[in-house]
Write a sequence for this structure.
């Protein structure tokens, strides 16, 4: 576990991702401190999800290196958990909530070994943490958007990782869910976990996050919220679109 | 006789290509397979009415069953019972099975055998003839010609509508071309073509005629009209070569045409100038070479004034610095020398003025 | 009854029944995953793609030994899957298009070879075209042994990797992140798919074998929301249909096996669509009616509460006409009022006049807390 003492949890260097001949991400350099809750912010098509996925080797990268506590992903899988966008899976799949959450233990189990009582117990504990224990045996297709999201977060909790990468966990969820998710995230942070979250709501950045990565194909700026989340940087990130947003968020920006 | 077979084959493939292009672009290629199987009971029942295939009844029966297939599978996935691909996969087998069983049960008094329906036999097509304007011509030739004309007329007349509804259904709706109507029109066209082509081509290979030329053309161009023209050319060429191949081997014609179509597809897959594998590999190589050249020059640029230049800019050091195989690195360095970016003196590589400018240009994006 | 008697004592029928039963087990199980992976049409493509393998194996070896022919079929099937994957990965042709191209090119080539073999002197392709339609009556003890071995292999592998298949079908990305190589999972699955298709060819034929994979899975899905139950149910549906269909086909001349099995499978499917316990049409309709009724019931209760609050004397009962005016478009309002009275939620102090009971008041209070009309 010594490697986890490293102060830099994630280091992305010279990352370029191209789709066909157009670059989606261009020469990205980001380094994320251990214990930070970082938001990836940027307009639509800025490559936010692509950044997350290329960090996880889910899409091929054209160049660059990504390391987790100084090591490549291959060595660090046990320590990295991913929460995809809700819309990326088939919620009509025949399975129950507790089953989905148990899937979080599959990585630790490795090939072939089936999950047992211990894994189920871990899953139930994770469900309690997100306030979903009453829904354990529900079919996943009966869940609301917020409940689906909490199920996904519970699955990530089961992995007991050091780094959590989440793609839009607050998209399309109700206020109560948003609150309960942010509580879970804060508790994770209190336990020394590092969180990177693709986020779209500028209004809550200051309240929820410690660090921010402003992205629009290039890294516009990254660092602590109080120095990085500035009008100037946001203008660079959102370009023309920013003026339309500006009026409402002036007071939220440092 | 031989030329008649070739003409019928060409007409059948042209007729299939027209709906095929649109089906492929609408990501519905396999619906043509499903339709060509599902029409079998309709053909059999239509045949039974007058014990002949030369009445309109088999066509009517086929269209009815094609619509049963389309409507049922759509209803199944719309009612959320199954997913769209599963809906197709569960509807056409029982219809086809019904057809096969009907044929088998009535085999003794029916001149319609399953092999012929499924696999077709173009060689026999010229035997069944009719008199048109005083001259004797094969019936299937007339039939396929009519279908080609109908399909061509529909495609030309509704080209814009079909195009818009294929690429942007929402825009199509807002422009006043109802996508659903065009969808059913296309389904109708597909089933009439399938039933017309089945006795020469066979039900199974209607799919080959519809999809393969269109897919080959798609690898060669991204313009819809050019794609249709290319598909016509590929279909015609495959038909001619296929018939000749079949006669040469004394083997089934529709299988031979499909094989030739497959050959064209493989050629396009490998050698298409726009999207073939060879072009892609070459592009990949080129990008890799350019990248290697850039970073080598960047390194030389950074060390062009340093005191340790002699060491930093030797080949041995470059080989240490970059994880490329020596031979590859040599090739890259030679290329740089060739282009006048780098000069070699006493086994030390020096970047030239021209090379400096190029290196700055390349790394400053 | 005589069919049952023959099944036990007739050698041929016993082989047929056993062979097709076993065949269904593996294909139904594998098919469940195919429907969930949105690959319902892949089986059809791969089955057709095996034909040139059969023909070439015969041309090269001049034997009709089933093992040789099946090996040829398997090789062609694997090549077919590889080609489909390559086309979808490297071109703009979609999955449906790639399936269609490989299906028709391979099958067309196979047909070319078959018709070529047919015309060769000294050889007959009799027995080869059996692969197109399938013929159960020709199953002999040796075939049953081959089928049994392959099905055991398929079921064992499926059980061993159940966790991996489940997770990668539901959420392939997270499964990859957890360290499972998607390509390895896909390759194992492809092996199973080719195995069940290839051994089924002789019985069901290339054109209809995909029904043995997909139809039972679609039927099983209507009965359960658990993946494990779905896989087992699908396997059983497929096995029973395979056996029943092939026995019917064997019992009469001129009844081809593949089509008969497909009709039995489809009968299972239609029953499941209608009466499936979890998603079937009937159960959905019943749920809908129940929901509508509880909605109407809640409207009546809230209306009575409203009436009580808006009158100075809240203990005054209200006639069914008044209630009817407040809750329009409720059918059978009198019946519903009586029903609520029987449940003790309403009191009926006079003929056709109603008022909330103590229990009814509690019920309304709970309703208001839990989101009004839509609460159960």
């Amino acid at each position: 576990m010594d490697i986890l003492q490293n102060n830099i949890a994630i280091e992305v260097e010279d990352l370029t991702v191209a789709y066909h001949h157009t670059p989606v991400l261009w020469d990205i350099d980001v380094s994320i401190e251990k214990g930070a809750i970082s938001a990836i912010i940027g307009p639509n098509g800025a490559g936010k999800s692509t950044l997350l996925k290329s960090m996880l080797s889910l899409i091929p990268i054209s160049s660059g290196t990504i390391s987790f506590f100084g090591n490549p992903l291959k060595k660090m899988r046990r320590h990295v958990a991913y929460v995809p966008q809700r819309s990326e899976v088939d919620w009509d799949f025949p399975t129950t909530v507790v089953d989905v959450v148990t899937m979080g233990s599959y990585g630790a189990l490795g090939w072939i070994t089936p999950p047992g009582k211990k894994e189920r117990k871990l899953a139930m504990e994770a469900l309690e943490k997100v306030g979903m224990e009453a829904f354990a045996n529900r079919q996943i297709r009966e869940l609301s958007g917020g409940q689906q999201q909490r199920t996904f977060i519970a699955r990530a909790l089961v992995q007991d990782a050091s780094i959590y990468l989440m793609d839009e966990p607050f998209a399309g969820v109700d206020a109560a869910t948003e609150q309960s998710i942010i509580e879970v995230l804060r508790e994770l942070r209190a336990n020394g976990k590092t969180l990177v979250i693709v986020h779209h709501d500028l209004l809550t950045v200051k309240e929820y996050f410690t660090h921010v990565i402003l992205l629009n194909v290039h890294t516009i700026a990254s660092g602590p919220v109080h120095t990085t989340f500035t009008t100037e940087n946001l203008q660079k990130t959102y370009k023309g679109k920013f003026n339309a947003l500006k009026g409402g968020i002036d007071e939220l920006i440092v | 006789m031989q030329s008649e077979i070739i003409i019928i084959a060409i007409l059948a493939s042209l007729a299939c290509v027209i709906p095929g292009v649109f089906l492929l672009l609408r990501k519905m290629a396999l619906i043509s397979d499903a339709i060509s199987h599902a029409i079998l009971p309709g053909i059999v029942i239509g045949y039974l009415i007058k014990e002949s295939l030369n009445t309109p009844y088999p066509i009517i029966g086929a269209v009815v069953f094609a619509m049963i297939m389309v409507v049922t599978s759509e209803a199944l996935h719309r009612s959320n019972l199954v997913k769209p691909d599963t809906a197709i996969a569960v509807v056409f087998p029982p219809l086809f099975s019904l057809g096969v069983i009907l044929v088998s049960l009535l085999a003794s008094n029916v001149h319609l055998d399953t092999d012929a329906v499924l696999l077709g036999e173009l060689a026999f097509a010229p035997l069944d003839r009719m008199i048109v304007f005083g001259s004797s011509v094969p019936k299937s030739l007339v039939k396929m010609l009519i279908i080609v004309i109908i399909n061509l007329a529909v495609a030309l007349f509704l080209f814009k509508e079909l195009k818009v509804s294929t690429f942007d259904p929402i825009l199509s709706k807002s422009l006043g071309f109802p996508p659903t109507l065009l969808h059913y029109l296309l389904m109708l066209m597909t089933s009439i073509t399938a039933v017309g082509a089945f006795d020469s081509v066979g039900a199974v290979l209607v799919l080959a005629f519809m999809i393969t030329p269109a897919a080959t053309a798609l690898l060669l161009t991204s313009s819809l009209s050019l794609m249709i023209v290319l598909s016509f050319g590929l279909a015609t060429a495959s038909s001619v070569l296929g018939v000749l191949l079949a006669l040469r081997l004394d083997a089934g014609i529709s299988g031979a045409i499909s094989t030739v179509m497959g050959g064209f597809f493989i050629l396009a897959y490998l050698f298409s100038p726009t999207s073939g594998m060879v072009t892609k590999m070459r592009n990949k190589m080129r990008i890799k070479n350019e990248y290697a050249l850039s970073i080598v020059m960047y390194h030389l640029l950074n060390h062009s004034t340093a005191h340790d230049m002699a060491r930093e800019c030797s080949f041995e050091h470059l080989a240490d610095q970059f994880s490329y195989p020596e031979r590859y690195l040599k090739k890259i360095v030679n290329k740089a020398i060739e282009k006048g970016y780098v000069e070699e003196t006493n086994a030390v590589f020096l970047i030239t003025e021209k090379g400096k400018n190029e290196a700055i240009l390349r790394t400053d994006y | 009854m005589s069919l049952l008697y023959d099944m036990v004592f007739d050698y041929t029928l016993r082989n047929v029944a056993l062979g097709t039963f076993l065949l269904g087990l593996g294909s139904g199980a594998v098919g469940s995953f195919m429907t969930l992976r949105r690959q319902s049409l892949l089986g059809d493509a791969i089955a057709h793609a095996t034909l040139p393998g059969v023909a070439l194996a015969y041309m090269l070896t001049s034997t009709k030994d089933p093992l040789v022919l099946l090996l040829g079929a398997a090789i062609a099937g694997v090549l077919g899957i590889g080609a489909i994957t390559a086309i979808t990965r490297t071109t703009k042709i979609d999955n449906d298009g790639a399936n269609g191209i490989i299906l028709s090119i391979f099958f067309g080539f196979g047909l070319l070879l078959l018709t070529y073999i047919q015309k060769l002197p000294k050889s007959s392709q009799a027995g080869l075209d059996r692969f197109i339609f399938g013929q159960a009556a020709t199953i002999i003890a040796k075939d049953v042994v081959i089928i049994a071995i392959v099905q055991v292999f398929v079921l064992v592998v499926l059980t061993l990797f159940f966790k991996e298949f489940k997770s990668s079908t539901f959420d392939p990305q997270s499964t990859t992140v957890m360290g499972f190589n998607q390509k390895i999972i896909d390759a194992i699955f492809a092996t199973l798919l080719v195995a069940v298709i290839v051994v089924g060819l002789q019985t069901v034929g290339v054109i209809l074998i995909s029904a043995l994979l997909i139809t039972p899975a679609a039927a099983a899905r209507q009965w359960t929301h658990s993946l494990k139950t779905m896989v087992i149910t699908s396997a059983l549906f497929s096995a029973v249909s395979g056996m029943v269909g092939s026995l019917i086909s064997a019992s009469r001349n001129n009844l081809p096996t593949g089509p008969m099995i497909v009709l039995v499978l489809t009968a299972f499917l239609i029953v499941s669509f209608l009466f499936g316990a979890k998603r079937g049409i009937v159960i959905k309709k019943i749920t809908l009616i129940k929901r509508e009724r509880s909605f109407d019931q809640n409207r009546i209760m809230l209306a009575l509460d409203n009436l009580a609050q808006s009158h100075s004397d809240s203990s005054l009962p209200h006639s069914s006409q008044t209630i009817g005016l407040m809750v329009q478009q409720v059918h059978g309002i009198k019946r519903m009022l009586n029903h609520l009275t029987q449940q003790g939620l309403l009191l009926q102090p006079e003929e056709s006049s109603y008022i909330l009971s103590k229990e009814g008041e509690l019920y309304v209070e709970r309703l208001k807390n839990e989101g009004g009309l839509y609460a159960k």
